[in-house]
Amino acid sequence: MEAPDTKREQIIEAALKRFAHFGMGKTTMAEIAKDLNLSKALLYYYFPDKTGLYATVLDRLFSSGEKEFGKHLKKVKTSAEGIAAYIDLRHSFIEKYFTLLEPSNFTELENHPDLIKLFEKAREQEKRHFTEIIKIDIDRGTSHVSDPEAMAELLFEAILGLRMLLIKNLKSHFRLDKEILARIADRQKQFAFIFLKGLNA
């Protein structure tokens, strides 16, 4: 018999492929079970509901993205380079997994405990990365910010707010596509560079 952890990993991988191609709403647990030649009963043994499985898939992707950014952060020499790397990597991530991450997936799921816990964890991880970005210029002696955590939180909230505002406004007129995602990333960079320049003034 296969080890339980191996079977669980296979389910996560199969779910990722389904969610990434068809989206969360158009994927059923029966289809995931069929892809793996599993009974639905065995699938539900590992993941009692689809939203819990979806949260597990997202957690896996977010962890992978965080590790990737950590590698890039070690190579940058200024806070501006750091924020550019963050926005570029996040843009590539969203573009690659757009069907899985499309905002409509969360309309009816935002109160699910697994997703609430996951997004709280992801936000804290992003805030830590922003703090590391702010500290790059402090360590170089070009910034004299006394509370990098507070500045990082402010920058993070502004970037997040800008993203949500642009998505809300653009979706009312256009389909949210790659061109619009690129425009959002560009606006975020413009704002972040102005913010960081102000800190270094």
Kindly report the average pLDDT value. 87
Alpha-carbon Rg, integer:
19 Å
Number of helices: 9
Instruction: Please tally the β strands and state the result.
Output: 0
Number of domains: 2
How much strand content do the residues show?
under 5%
Distance between the termini: 64 Å
Poorly predicted sequence stretches spanning 5 or more consecutive residues: none
CATH 2nd-level architecture of the largest domain: Orthogonal Bundle
According to CATH, what is the topology of the largest domain?
Tetracycline Repressor, domain 2
Q: Into which percent range does the helicity of residues fall?
A: over 70%
Identify the CATH homologous superfamily of the largest domain.
Tetracycline Repressor, domain 2
Largest sheet descriptor = none
Shape: elongated
- Look at the structure and give the CATH class of the largest domain: Mainly Alpha
What's the helix-strand series?
Answer: HHHHHHHHH
Structural class: mainly alpha
Please tag this protein with its features.
9 helices; elongated; single chain; Tetracycline Repressor, domain 2; mainly alpha; Arc Repressor Mutant, subunit A; 0% strand; 201 residues
Overall description:
The chain is an all-alpha fold and 201 residues long. It folds into 2 domains: 1-48, Homeodomain-like (Arc Repressor Mutant, subunit A, Orthogonal Bundle), CATH 1.10.10; 59-199, Orthogonal Bundle (Tetracycline Repressor, domain 2), CATH 1.10.357. Helices cover 76% and strands 0% of the residues. The longest helix has 28 residues, at 113-140.
